[in-house]
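Task 17 of the worksheet. Students: predict the tertiary structure of the chain below and write it out as structure tokens. Keep your answer in the requested format; marks are given for formatting as well as content.
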Amino acid sequence: MIEREHNPEYDRPKHRLRRFGRQAIKFAHPEGWLASAIRKAVDPEVRWNERFSEAAAFMGTRVGAPKTLIVVAAQDQLVDGLYPNDEFVARLEHGLAGAHELVRAGGIVEIYVPGSRHRHDGIDDEVSLATAGLQWLQSQELPPGVVLHGDDANIKYKSEDGVYNSGDEALVAASLFKDDADFGTIELYCGPNQNRRWSLQAIANGVVVNVNTVMPPTDEHNALFEEIADRYTYYCDPTWQGRTSFLAAVSRRMRQPRNDTI
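Model answer:
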């Protein structure tokens, strides 16, 4: 056994204590990983800033891409189970006008109208919100070359779960956008009660949308519920996806017809 000469400058217990102290200082430092993790846990703004930076960086990779995806947020309840109500029509009109403007400027446009078939006060609609919206658009003068998406996208990206809330809409729109590298921008047409929540949910899905707020002819929304939904999105559940998403489950239970898949 080789005996080591004692070095008074190296005392093992003291060395371990110094090393532990350095690590503790590193962890507790404002820029350390532990402090960062704690800030994310107690301050959602930190995580939202990260999400926005990630989404903005992705959008930066699409600068110059030729196509625009217009999303017209759906609104229940359909008139006679078939036709968009006044609030829904107002959004469709603004979205269609935006499409005409982009095409006149030489742009390429695709329009996504979300929304599965809904139940309202125990009465099932005859068609999905997407179908009602697309039928309205097709009854108007569409810009040349415009491609329309509705239930095709709903089924592709949400399958049997359907599209029943802004989180579902944002996920499908983001997926459509990401899957086609020719898309460069997303223009959203929605009501004033949706714009904050929809924007956050889009960011949580990795994209940034340009919001076009369309004022409804009459505002029949529950302001308290909308505020709760916004705060729930910001503090608790950014995407409203997954089996543990409370408000997603509530909206689906309230709006999905029995034994329906779209």
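Marker's comment: The chain is about 50% helix and 15% strand. The domain at 49-255 is CATH 3.40.50 (Rossmann fold).
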